[in-house]
Specification:
Number of strands: 8
Order of helices and strands: EHEEEEHHEEE
Distance between the termini: 31 Å
Strand order of the largest sheet: 1-5-4-3-2
Radius of gyration: 15 Å
Bound molecules: zinc ion
Number of domains: 1
């Protein structure tokens, strides 16, 4: 597992900004995300909290070696959003079974703008 420490994340954050990996939610409950890197390769990132420590794991080479990688950084940003949306959703009076449709502009690997449509966090 990789400890989420700001000092260790600086380089990975810069890398994530350059690569702009695409993050998909696999399971918001299990805090599991799929992150697509610069070459279209997808890695699975998981988050956990243990003894108050925020931990992550990634199945890329750096992640397996316990090193902070940009997949973790990219997924961490989405994890924060996803978990806060879930908190809002829990207190909102709307029907919980209604699918959430989210449209947003994203950038593809070549920098081209694409419109991504998500239904309950899944790209469709
Ligand atoms: Zn990784």
């Amino acid at each position: 597992m990789i400890k989420l420490e700001p000092a260790a994340m600086t380089k990975a954050i810069a890398r994530a900004k350059a690569v702009r990996p695409r993050v998909r939610v696999i399971s918001a409950d299990a805090r599991t995300y799929s992150v697509t890197g610069s070459k279209g390769d997808a890695y699975t990132v998981r988050f956990a909290v243990s003894n108050g420590l925020k931990l992550a794991e990634c199945d890329c080479r750096a992640g397996k070696a316990g090193m902070m990688c940009f997949h973790v950084v990219a997924a961490a940003q989405v994890n924060v959003m996803t978990q806060s949306m879930r908190k809002q959703g829990a207190s909102a009076p709307v029907a919980p079974l209604a699918p959430r449709i989210v449209r947003r502009i994203e950038r593809g690997h070549n920098g081209a703008k694409i419109v991504a449509v998500y239904c309950d966090g899944w790209a469709i």
